[in-house]
Amino acid sequence: MSYSSSFWEKDSFLKPYDLAIVGAGIVGLSSALFYKQQNPSARVAVLERGFLPQGASTRNAGFACVGSIGEHLADMEKDSEENIKERIKRRYEGLELLKQTLGEEAIGYEHCGGYEFFKSRKKFEKVSAQIDRFNGWMRALINENEVYSKDELQGYPVIRNRLEGALHPGKMMEALAKKVSSVGVDIKWNSRVEDATKDGIVSIANGLEIESDKVLFAANGFVQRLLPELEINPARGFVMVTNEQENFPWKGIFHHDRGYVYFRNVGNRLLIGGARNLDKEGEQTDQFGTNGTIKLHLKEFVSGVLGCGSDWNIDYEWSGIMGFSPTKTPIVKQLDRNRFVAAGLSGMGIAIGMEVGRGVSEMLES
């Protein structure tokens, strides 16, 4: 027998919403927060498929970064200089908005500095030759001087970015969810949306239907399940955390190989992840799991490059699902009369997710 709602439910819990948001990641919750603050009397719901945010918001590495020079140079091979400058500025301003909105303590923020790590001195010399150029960019974009500088750590050449830091994604999302709930937004966990029509009928997997004047799709890496026509591809990222290490030398956040490999300390543990460029096609999936080739590569990097020796082991490992647009610029637009989308954060969710959410709120108002 199919599920049917009672009169009482329809007259209370299931009254029509002004805005229903699909996805309780950083974009979905931020959109709800800013919209509700601007429209205190509006009924707003966020519908999340899992018991926790299921994509990457609580499953990333916790990097508060604007991008390494090597990453930006690689992006310039397929995108314009102006777009990359705008992306850098957006990432910086997005991180500032995140810290101001939730507070540094609430998100576990540490201003530890970021480093681009090189195994090859030849590659280091090639990339570091661009430091003056990128320092000029930062001066013009965000009024910060001498952001990038040469350094050396544990015998390896690095480029330091003094503006970057680390945070705790779990604490960040917990703080955001609490703030969103405190302004009167309904967050519905374990509510997987199967469809949302142009007429504002949102169908949930448990048989429920709700009505909403506006619907925002903010499911990022899973958005193609609902909107297959969108040019947003899922991308799986693998992360692992070691046991505690004595005299652990790597303090800060580190990027290697154009940003594809990343590592940081979590206390005296090493967190390392990425390397999806070893099998981009295989990692273009919205299924959680582990790619053996990638895991082996990262393990060899830990032992052979970072010098953790033979006494380390993996205490935690997981994957997260990101969503990538063709140019790394998020797709934020109106689809039809009452449906909107904000997805394709392209691995920059922490940096730009809240800023995207604020922009979504403005789009919904107009």
The CATH C-level name of the largest domain is: Alpha Beta
Largest sheet: 8 strands, mixed
Enter the CATH topology name of the largest domain: FAD/NAD(P)-binding domain
Tell me, briefly, the overall form.
Answer: globular
Q: Give the percentage of residues in beta strands.
A: 25-35%
Radius of gyration: 21 Å
User: What is the tally of beta strands?
Assistant: 18
**End-to-end CA span:** 43 Å
CATH architecture label of the largest domain: 3-Layer(bba) Sandwich
Helix content: 25-40%
| SSE string | HEHEEHHEHHEEEHEEEEEEEEHEEEH
Q: Label the structural class.
A: alpha/beta
Average pLDDT score: 96
Whole-number total of structural domains: 3
DSSP summary: helix tally: 9
Task: Write a structural description.
This protein is an alpha/beta fold. It folds into three domains: 16-58 and 170-231 and 327-365, FAD/NAD(P)-binding domain (3-Layer(bba) Sandwich); 67-165, no CATH class; 234-324, no CATH class. The protein has helices at residues 7-10, 26-38, 69-75, 81-102, 121-128, 131-142, 169-182, 292-304, 349-365, and strands spanning 17-22, 44-47, 63-64, 114-117, 148-153, 156-161, 165-166, 186-188, 193-196, 201-204, 209-217, 233-242, 253-256, 261-266, 269-274, 314-324, 331-334, 339-343. The mean pLDDT is 96. Helices cover 30% and strands 26% of the residues. The longest helix has 22 residues, at 81-102. β9 (193-196) and β10 form a beta hairpin. The strands form three sheets. Strands 1, 2, 8, 9, 10, 11, 17 and 18 form an eight-stranded mixed beta sheet that branches. An eight-stranded mixed beta sheet has the order 5-6-4-13-14-15-12-16, sandwiched between helices. The radius of gyration is 21 Å and the shape is globular. α4 crosses α6 (131-142). It has nine helices and 18 strands.
